[in-house]
Amino acid sequence: MITTLEGIFRALPLSKSETGTSLRPVTVKQLSKATQPHTDAEWIVDGNEIGQVTLVAHVISIQIQATNRVFWLDDGTGRIEARCWVDSTDAEDEKWTGIVENTYVRVTGGLKMFGNKRYVNALHIRPIKDPHEIFYHILDSITTNLILERGPPTNAGGQTQGTFGKSAYMTESHGIDMGQYADLPPLQRNILKVLVENPTETGHDVEAVMRSLRITDRGQVVVRTAIEELVNQGHAFSTDDEMHFRASVG
């Protein structure tokens, strides 16, 4: 059982099908350091499997071929090739508008390797029109990596940021010692902390827990699985509608 403060998704890994539909912001350096246990396995970045990736980079050069376009990209952390397959239709030509050398683009696709050379198999590529998107992507990549590595951020008091504030209509917390849950994965501990410190008569649903922990929609399956594990272990229970949950303490 995981006992150290590891990331949300490391605590409860995504299944192969879920990984394939996930989208993670990355840098070129992360892709260059990615590992693959075998040719049919998912790529792993910093200990976590990745599916689709998105990156923002400067277009160094463009090579136009009959069946594809090859973009040589540089994001400041490294360089990588992005390859986009094309056809000869007019509609296909329209999507390249604004994508020229010495501009920034956002590329979405999957990491591939051919002949010991890594490249991004680009499913979508578009020009960057707002320069703030470049800096946003850098921060998004850093934030995602830190959450996966360390779990959701906490404040000076050790509480997960974004938890619900106290209300006169909420039952007061009974001062439960969270140390008794030290053997649980970090995500399950954080979920229990939300349920314990912010009790309600009806309990919290999955979306409420996600908002409290500031987890995006991408993590819904992971959070739901963690709650089910807590229920199976007797640490939480579902209320009348089986969509809301409360901690099994009082």
UniProtKB/TrEMBL annotation:
Residues 53-128 form the OB domain. The keyword Transferase does not apply. Its main location: nucleus. Gene3D superfamilies: Nucleic acid-binding proteins (2.40.50.140), Winged helix-like DNA-binding domain superfamily/Winged helix DNA-binding domain (1.10.10.10). CDD domains: RPA2_DBD_D. The lineage of its organism: Eukaryota, Fungi, Dikarya, Basidiomycota, Agaricomycotina. Keywords: DNA-binding, Nucleus. One of its GO terms (cellular component) is site of double-strand break. GO terms for biological process: DNA replication; double-strand break repair via homologous recombination; nucleotide-excision repair. This is OB domain-containing protein. It is found in: Nucleus. One of its GO terms (molecular function) is single-stranded DNA binding. InterPro entries: NA-bd_OB-fold, NA-bd_OB_tRNA, RFA2-like, Rfa2/RPA32, WH-like_DNA-bd_sf, WH_DNA-bd_sf. It comes from Amanita thiersii Skay4041.
